[in-house]
Structures are given as structure tokens and as C-alpha cells.
Design brief:
Layout lengths: L14 H4 L4 H17 L3 H13 L6 E7 L5 H12 L3 E8 L2 H10 L6 E5 L11 E7 L7 H14 E10 L3 H14 L3 H12 L4 H10 L7 E6 L3 E7 L2
Parallel strand pairs: 1-2, 1-4, 2-3, 4-5
Antiparallel strand pairs: 5-7, 6-7
Helix pairs in contact: 2-5, 7-8
This protein binds S-adenosylmethionine.
């Protein structure tokens, strides 16, 4: 390990993005991620941001939310059940590059839930209908800096009321914690490989400021917040 370790985003690729998985292997990976998401409080920052963002809209109207890189669809199912308790009329769409994500998410989602899944590369996708909010979790660390700048501009253009990015903080503490803790909770060799690499591919606050600047989005229009345990989230609410 050198002094420059984690100074920059790793460019090493994750197995999730490179291995030619069959459906069952990919589904097992996504189930593992869903399990970890519950443990590391993934849903909390997004729900907290949505709560505030929705308060600015007229009550009773239908709200559309697009989750990019939706994986097994667990964030959207969580938003659905959260919204049921609040009497929200939700229209939820998840898109993911890998066609196995759609199949796995559909199998995990009860029929009748207001959630659809599609296969698409976000860098080449136009929503069929205007969307109120665009969210993502653990997507941006899979993209290059140049792709993230495009993604930020795309969200800025497509989301009527705002967008929210939920991803990891690149830091030595979570890198080592994840490296040693994940084998205790997952036997999946791909998850064991990718989990610390995800932290190494993730972001510092300076990275996010640079990406927002490159996308031409003024810092004053966004909110960058750190969430326990070692997560950076970027939110944009449009007036
Ligand atoms: C680490 S997983 C996160 C899944 C889920 N959001 C979660 O938090 O558990 C990243 C997901 O992003 C998807 N993905 C990567 N690049 C993408 C792209 N360009 N467009 C759409 N989805 C993408 C991958 O297929 C994968 O399912």
C-alpha cells in the first residue's frame, strides 16, 4: 500500500460489470446486495430526502420516481411500502443495464405493486414520460467520471422536481472494514471481491464538487451530505 492509496477513484472493474453471469448467479449477487443494503442503512438517506422533496409538492397528486441502476428493485419496493403509509399515489420505474436485473426484480416484486422495470443503459435512455424525481443507489461508482458528468446533466434535464444520488464514501476506514466484514456475512466470491473495490471506486466530497462543477450545476443548487456509515449523497431539489 502506498501513500496514494485511495487518493483517486480506482479504475479497476468490478466483477458485476465484467463477468458473464448466468441468471441464477446474478440473482444471487443481487439478493446479497439487498441483504447488505438492509444492514448498511442504504434506504434511509433516500427516504429522508424524498420526504422533504415531496413536502414541496401539492398533496394528492401522482408522483413518478425513476430509480437508475435499480438492481433487485429493493429501493423501489421500500419506497412503495413507505408511500403506502403516507397515502402516496406512486408511479415507480426502475431501469438497469443488465437484463437479469429486470427478471430478478420482477420476481421479487408483488403483483399489483405500482413498480415497473426496464432494461436500459442510462447513458442512452429517454424516459417514456416526464419523471418527477430521479434517484440512484450504488450506481455512480460503476460509472467513469466522464459518464458521471453526463449522468448529472441528464438528470438535471429529465427530472422535473429533483434528483438524488446515494453512494459510498471513498475512505480507508470503510475500505478495510468492508474487506474484513463482508466475508463474515457473504460467501459469494464476487461480492467479496467487489465490496471493497466499490469503496475504492467511490467518491470524496471534493470528487462530487468537481463533477458537479464539470456538469455546470452550481454548488448552491445541490446539497452534498455524509450519512452514517460512510456514504455520500448528492441531492438537488428544483424550485
Ligand atoms: C451495485 S448495483 C446497485 C443495485 C441497487 N441500486 C442497489 O443499491 O442494491 C449497480 C447496478 O447498476 C447497474 N448499472 C451499471 N451501469 C449502468 C448503466 N449505465 N445504466 C443502467 N444501469 C447500470 C448494474 O447493472 C447494477 O445492477
Amino acid at each position: 500500500m502506498t501513500g496514494t492509496f485511495l487518493a483517486r477513484r480506482s479504475t479497476e472493474l468490478e466483477r458485476l460489470d465484467t463477468e458473464p453471469y448466468g441468471f441464477e448467479e446474478f440473482q444471487e449477487y443481487l439478493h446479497g446486495l439487498e441483504h447488505i443494503n438492509r444492514w448498511v442503512l442504504t434506504y434511509r438517506p433516500t427516504l429522508k430526502w424524498l420526504e422533504k422533496a415531496l413536502a414541496a409538492l401539492a398533496p394528492g397528486r401522482r408522483i413518478s420516481i425513476l430509480d437508475v441502476g435499480s438492481g433487485n428493485g429493493d429501493m423501489l419496493r421500500r419506497i412503495w411500502t413507505w408511500g403506502l403509509g403516507r397515502g402516496l399515489d406512486l408511479d415507480l420505474l426502475g431501469i438497469d443495464l443488465n437484463p437479469w436485473s429486470r427478471k430478478s426484480a420482477e420476481l421479487a416484486t408483488p403483483p399489483g405493486a405500482p413498480i415497473r422495470f426496464e432494461t436500459a443503459d442510462v447513458l442512452d435512455f429517454t424516459p417514456p414520460d416526464p419523471v418527477d424525481f430521479i434517484i440512484s443507489s450504488h450506481l455512480t461508482h460503476h460509472l467513469t467520471d466522464e459518464q458521471n458528468v453526463r449522468f448529472l446533466r441528464w438528470m438535471e434535464a429529465q427530472a422535473r422536481h429533483g434528483w438524488f444520488i446515494n453512494d459510498l464514501h471513498r475512505h480507508a476506514l470503510p475500505y478495510h472494514a468492508v474487506k474484513y466484514a463482508i466475508p463474515l456475512v457473504s460467501r459469494n466470491p464476487s461480492i467479496r471481491h467487489d465490496a471493497p473495490l466499490s469503496v475504492a471506486r467511490a467518491f470524496t466530497s471534493a470528487d462530487w464538487r468537481g463533477l458537479l462543477d464539470a456538469a455546470g450545476i452550481p454548488a448552491g443548487q445541490t446539497r452534498l451530505a455524509w450519512f452514517f456509515p460512510f456514504r455520500y449523497c448528492v441531492g438537488r431539489s428544483k424550485p
